[in-house]
Amino acid sequence: MSASMSYHEDLDLPLCLEIVEDGTVTVVVVAGELDMDTTPDLVATVWRLAAKQPSWLVLDCARVTFFGAAGVTALRQAQAALAAVSGHLLLRDPSPIMHRVLHAVDCWDTFTVDHGHRSDLADLDTRTEEPGNRSS
Q1: Where are the domains positioned within the chain?
Q2: pLDDT digits over 5-54, tens only?
Q3: Contact 107/74 with Cβ under 8 angstroms?
Q4: What DSSP line would sit under the chain, residue for residue?
Q5: Nearest Cα to 71, choosing from 45, 98, 46?
Q6: What angle, 0 to 180 degrees and rounded to 10, lies between the N-to-C axes of helices 96-104 and 69-83?
Q7: 74 Cα distance to chain centroid
Q8: N or C: which end of the chain has fewer CB within 10 A?
Q9: Angle between helices 39-50 and 69-83 (to 10 degrees)
Q10: pLDDT band for position 115 (50/70/90)?
Q11: pTM for the structure as a whole
């Protein structure tokens, strides 16, 4: 992927966000804790990125170490932010804790999820799909 911009935010906090923009697809690598103290940073970042109207925003969640109710709310807010600009949210590689929590609160199927197949981001430009799992 050829990145037009990549930078880190909030390196001193328990949450690190790395953003890579490539055309109409934006990837946010999320590392650390998604709790009530850190989710406002994620939500603000998603809203800022949504203003650029990406067709897809990919949250790479493989390195999320804590995920609670605030994290679920943040994902729903991210989904709403993208829907407001006709964009889509993709959760890539949700960590085991995210998997457990999203299943426990029965909202796993409300998100589009890619389980580590690292789909070609260029392919996302032409895709539209309803929430659900892309692969197991």
Answers
A1: 6-116
A2: 334 444 455 899 999 988 889 999 999 999 999 999 999 999 999 999 99
A3: no
A4: ---SEEEEE-TTSSEEEEEEEETTEEEEEEEEEESTTTHHHHHHHHHHHHTT--SEEEEEEEEEEEE-HHHHHHHHHHHHHHHTTT-EEEEES--HHHHHHHHHTT-GGGSEEE-S----HHHHTT----SEES--
A5: 98
A6: 80
A7: 10
A8: C
A9: 10
A10: confident
A11: 0.81
- Length, in residues, of the chain: 136
- Alpha carbon distance 128, 136 (integer Å): 19
Query: What's phi and psi for 133, nearest 5 deg?
Result: -85, 135
Amino acid at the residue 122: A
Q: CB–CB of 34/2 below 8 Å?
A: no
Q: 3.30.750.24, 3.40.50.620, 3.20.20.140, 3.40.50.300: which CATH number matches 6-116? A: 3.30.750.24
In this structure, are residues 1 and 102 in contact, taking their beta carbons and an 8 Å threshold?
A: no
Under 8 Å between Cβ of 87 and 55: yes
